[in-house]
Amino acid sequence: ADRDIGKSHGAAASRQKRQFVVDWAFPPESSQADVFDATCGETELLSGVLSGVNACVMCYGQTGAGKTHTLGNLSPGSEGIMWRCLERLLAEQPEGEPQQ
Q1: Do the annotations mark residue 61 as ligand-binding?
Q2: 99 lies in a domain?
Q3: 68 annotated ligand-binding residue
Q4: 2 pLDDT higher than 60
Q5: Any domain includes 80
Q6: Where, in this chain's numbering, is ATP bound (predicted)?
Q7: In total, how many domains does the chain have?
Q8: Domain range spanning residue 41?
Q9: Which residues contact 82 (CB under 8 A, 6 or more apart)?
């Protein structure tokens, strides 16, 4: 058996402490609705998209931290940001205008 599996060699083994600047970090008790409202729902992000401005929402974190759950969860009542944004965009699309 290879006993080196899972060991880091080189640059990864000599990681230095780094500081990162973030806009917001949500506490564990935050609901999907809380995260959506703070990042997309109560901001100008979606109205900008409807006006033709590009937007990007990114989740960053450790494996298993909940990034996929936060962005793409489909469970009723606990939908992720992506699905809530899509619902809001479709609801706010003016009547009679083509959807692109």
Answers
A1: yes
A2: no
A3: yes
A4: no
A5: yes
A6: 61-68
A7: 1
A8: 29-92
A9: 57, 71, 72
